[in-house]
Write a structure and sequence with these properties.
By secondary structure, the chain is α/β, with parallel strands linked by helices. The protein has one domain (about 1-180): Maf protein (Alpha-Beta Complex), CATH 3.90.950. It is built from six helices and seven strands, in the order E-H-E-H-E-E-H-E-E-H-E-H-H. The protein has helices spanning about 10-20, 40-55, 80-90, 125-135, 165, 170-180, and strands at about 1-5, 25, 60-70, 75, 95-105, 110-120, 155-160. Strands 1, 2, 3, 4, 5, 6 and 7 form a seven-stranded mixed beta sheet that branches.
Length: about 190
């Protein structure tokens, strides 16, 4: 069975490749805007389901995801510019926040979805360290302005829950959803 990843995220591609899964990539064109007062869990699940739904390939199992960072009740998406990244990282410095990923798997007319949440604690950082990280360019395309799969890993003191969720694709929940569609990642 063919697998299609409905995502332009290089981190999601890397995670799937790291577990030896063969797949194709289709970058979905969906509105990823959050509705006013939309619950973060409902938001990421809705967007993941929308990404999966736009891939019209009845012979494939489609995987889609959407990830956000939540801190003090606010959803932190991708920063619009370096100063916003500095602001986000300054707020997260030395604090704990949530990372939430909506995950959807679709085959034919059937779709299953779930939401995975991990708790991340940042280490203490200086303003110079935050500025240095932002100047690397890495935070500019990541929710919450950091990535666990790169240099941003040095910002993270601990993760409670799935580390792959923090990167953008929770692999254990993905394996459970894929089994529903007859794809077992451990038995091939």
């Amino acid at each position: 069975m063919r697998i299609v990843l409905a995502s332009g995220s290089p981190r999601r591609r890397e995670l799937l490749a790291s577990i030896g899964l063969g797949f194709e990539v289709v970058v979905p064109d969906v509105d990823e805007s959050r509705y006013p007062d939309e619950d973060p869990s409902m938001f990421v699940e809705r967007v993941a389901r929308s990404k999966a739904a736009v891939v019209d390939d009845p012979g494939a199992v489609v995987i889609a995801a959407d990830t956000v960072v939540i801190f003090e009740g606010r959803v932190l998406g991708k920063p619009a510019h370096p100063n916003e990244a500095i602001s986000m990282l300054t707020a997260l410095e030395g604090e704990r926040h949530s990372v939430m990923t909506g995950l959807a798997v679709k085959a034919g007319d059937r779709m299953e979805s779930t939401v995975e949440t991990s708790l991340v604690t940042f280490t203490s950082l200086t303003a110079a360290e935050i500025a240095g990280y932002v100047s690397s360019g890495e935070p500019l395309d990541k929710a919450g302005s950091y990535g666990l799969g790169g240099l941003g890993a040095v910002l993270v003191e601990s993760v409670q829950g799935s580390p792959s969720n923090v990167i953008g694709l929770p692999l254990a929940p993905l394996a459970r959803l894929l089994r529903v569609f007859g794809v077992d990642l451990l038995i091939r």
